[in-house]
Amino acid sequence: MGKNTKKKKKTTTIRSELKNGGLLLAELIASFDGKTNPIRCFTSDQILKATENFSETQIISSWGYFTWYRGVIEDRPVSIKKWSNQNLSSFTEAYRDISVSSQMSGHKNSLKLLGCCLDFELPSLVCEYTVHGPLNRDGGVSSGEPLPWRVRLKIAKEIASSVAYLHTAFPETIIHRNINPTNIFVDENWTAKLSDFWFCVAIPEGEVYVEDDVKGVIGFVDPDYYWTMKVTEKVDVYSFGVVMLVLLSGRAAVFNGGPGEAPMSLNDHVSEVMERGGFEEVVDREVWSVSDGDELVVRKSQVEAFLRLALRCVRYKNEDPVSGMIEVAKELKLIEKLS
């Protein structure tokens, strides 16, 4: 057997044994023009030990497509993401999650990917651990502790920075398509971290949109995207605007109305309130928690500017739409400086 034949056979064997690794590498190369970050591989034994065999007692959150578990690997607390084989529509999405996470890990407001495990049918992600975990649907934390206004504003500012980076830092514009509170993790310093990049799609260089099936969570999907299936930066801008409304109101994007009433869209609720000429009804009471009158004046200025920016993101009536996430991030920094 010739030298080249032996080499070919060896390569084929490696590809067979590391099928998942090959799929991951292909996704990395396709997504980022061959520019990849080193990704550490953990064993299934490490993952099972860390999660106590994926014990319910270790669950951080579960959303149907995947479950987040807390664990400890090599004396370091971690968050481990396990996919649900039954619900995932495409295995490629699991690999895309790793590839984009690896590229975003250098941004301080992205959940840092520490590595993955390729021993299972679908790869598990191993990420940094955050004390407060992901936000819940109404923008709060699992402890039920109401978030102060400054924290809500900080979360919005930091996630805007992360999304703007996703849109601009790579050869092609990457669109998240799934920005919602449950994909935002918060650490012990109330630093916000964007996660869950599995719905990401790239807009080719020189193009302004790409057509694809509609992805996302009800209440956060841009209506134009829903009807045209055209993915643009506006898809993320719209979703982020809804996240801002959630943070401001303390309500989920779709919430239950009064007794006997059908579930209501937060956007519709905000529209109704704005039609009546006020905005205080939109705002969570905790937002107005201040110590003196001067602080209340500043708070009102911040809240009004925050709401106006959110309405521009969701393209509410006569509000001038924002140009993109870079503008949103800059505006939020200015709003924060009003304090």
UniProtKB/TrEMBL annotation:
<dbReference type="GO" id="GO:0004674">
    <property type="term" value="F:protein serine/threonine kinase activity"/>
</dbReference>
<dbReference type="InterPro" id="IPR045274">
    <property type="entry name" value="WAK-like"/>
</dbReference>
<protein>
    <recommendedName>
        <fullName>Protein kinase domain-containing protein</fullName>
    </recommendedName>
</protein>
<dbReference type="GO" id="GO:0042742">
    <property type="term" value="P:defense response to bacterium"/>
</dbReference>
<keyword id="KW-0067">ATP-binding</keyword>
<dbReference type="GO" id="GO:0009266">
    <property type="term" value="P:response to temperature stimulus"/>
</dbReference>
<comment type="similarity">
    <text>Belongs to the protein kinase superfamily. Ser/Thr protein kinase family. ZRK subfamily.</text>
</comment>
<dbReference type="GO" id="GO:0005886">
    <property type="term" value="C:plasma membrane"/>
</dbReference>
<dbReference type="InterPro" id="IPR001245">
    <property type="entry name" value="Ser-Thr/Tyr_kinase_cat_dom"/>
</dbReference>
<feature type="domain" description="Protein kinase">
    <location>
        <begin position="54"/>
        <end position="339"/>
    </location>
</feature>
<dbReference type="InterPro" id="IPR011009">
    <property type="entry name" value="Kinase-like_dom_sf"/>
</dbReference>
<dbReference type="GO" id="GO:0005524">
    <property type="term" value="F:ATP binding"/>
</dbReference>
<dbReference type="Pfam" id="PF07714">
    <property type="entry name" value="PK_Tyr_Ser-Thr"/>
</dbReference>
<keyword id="KW-0547">Nucleotide-binding</keyword>
<dbReference type="GO" id="GO:0007166">
    <property type="term" value="P:cell surface receptor signaling pathway"/>
</dbReference>
<dbReference type="InterPro" id="IPR000719">
    <property type="entry name" value="Prot_kinase_dom"/>
</dbReference>
